[in-house]
Specification:
The protein is mostly beta strands and about 350 residues long. The strands form 4 sheets. A 6-stranded antiparallel beta barrel has the order 9-10-11-14-13-12. A 6-stranded antiparallel β-barrel has the order 3-4-5-8-7-6. Strands 16, 17, 18, 19, 20 and 21 form a 6-stranded antiparallel sheet that branches. The chain is globular. The two termini are about 30 Å apart.
Length: about 350
């Protein structure tokens, strides 16, 4: 199947070329709490009927929509032909989603939604529109912040939760603008955790949340919400043969997204740790290095193509995804111990991480 970013292309501006659907998606998630543990029965409670269970779920999702949807926005951008969206020249329009995070007008979305934007317009649930400016973007996590200048009464911030406590099987709901239909909501579950997806700049994003909530073109940048209305992820991609929803979507984990958004809003520059290797899953266990970037921290430390990484700082590495995740939790200039197997022998190599190139 094909992994797709789900930005919705609308129509070219100043060119005669018509564009089809592009790539980009937004998901909202609702999370149920954990089941109660076993204990002493002090009273008998009649089981809910199927109809009662459906009614309870419907009521919860309805309330979630009422609480969260005012904080979700539709984003329309004009993009220059340098973005590659319109090979015929001029500009094109694209559409995505986003969500308000404070009463100062900051809105979080995907970096690919605003990539190449010459102008950005935000539409609120009330129908009001406002021009937005780009605060900053980080392609490595596919996170961006834009800002609108409106009265605080128009803003309904959503709160970041944590992605670290998300569990497979939690109920999820998506709110966004699929196919240009703002304020649309779908629901499903968290299907899997710790997926690795590819960022717009071709680096890996680890820890992505997989969901079967329906997401489509135009949903990119919307929040994944739990049942408390907390953002646990930013919806970014689907995996599909058809280009539409096949029940496999991915969201950027909230913990990473919050850190990036906070840095951008504060006027800082986002930096990521850099090792400088390309890897694949080893035939047994570990991450096999397929190539080493010349002059990179790994190269300078003596790591070689063919080495199999089995641990970082004593933490076992079972796959290429594990290695990506372990490097991702570090900062540039951190020194780590990389344990590799080379020619049948184990070797510890100290590496001082660099700054990931843009």
């Amino acid at each position: 199947m094909n992994r797709q970013i789900l930005l919705r292309r609308i129509a070219p501006i100043g060119a005669a070329l018509a564009l089809g659907g592009g790539a980009g998606a937004a998901i909202y998630a609702a999370t149920t709490g954990p089941d109660g543990g076993a204990g002493t029965v002090v009273a008998s409670v009649p089981a809910q009927s199927a109809a009662q269970t459906v009614a309870t779920t419907t009521s919860t999702l309805t309330q979630l929509y009422k609480d969260a949807s005012p904080g979700v926005v539709d984003i329309t951008v004009n993009q220059s032909d340098s973005s590659g969206a319109n090979p015929g020249g001029g500009q094109s329009q694209a559409e995505g989603s986003g969500f308000v995070v404070d009463t100062k007008g900051d809105i979080v979305t995907n970096a690919h939604v605003v990539d190449g934007a010459t102008s950005i317009k935000v539409r609120f649930q009330t129908g009001r529109t406002a021009k937005a400016t780009l605060v900053g973007a980080d392609d490595s996590t596919d996170v961006a912040v834009i800002k609108v200048d409106v009265d605080s009464s128009q803003l309904h911030p959503l709160s970041f939760g944590t992605s670290s406590s998300v569990q497979v099987g939690q109920s999820v709901a998506a709110i966004g603008s699929p196919f240009g239909l703002p304020e649309s909501m779908t629901s499903g579950i968290v299907s899997a955790l710790n997926r690795t997806i590819t960022a717009p700049n071709n680096y890996s994003i680890s820890g992505a949340i997989q969901t079967d909530a329906a997401i489509n073109h135009g949903n990119s940048g919307g929040p994944l919400l739990n049942m408390s209305g907390d953002v646990i992820g930013i919806n970014a991609q689907i995996e599909s043969d058809s280009g539409g929803n096949d029940g496999v979507g991915f969201a950027i984990p909230a913990d990473a997204a919050k850190n990036v958004a906070t840095t951008l809003i504060a006027g800082g520059k986002v930096q990521h740790a850099y090792l400088g290797i390309r890897v694949a899953n080893a035939s047994s266990s570990g991450a096999q290095i397929t190539s080493v970037v010349s002059g990179s921290p790994a190269d300078k430390a003596g790591i070689k193509a063919g080495d199999v990484v089995t641990a970082i700082d004593g933490n076992a590495i079972a796959s290429a995804d594990d290695l990506t995740a372990q490097v991702g939790v570090h900062q540039p200039s951190d020194t780590i111990t990389v344990t590799v197997t080379r020619n049948g022998s184990s070797k510890d190599i100290k590496v001082t991480l660099g700054v990931r190139p843009s």
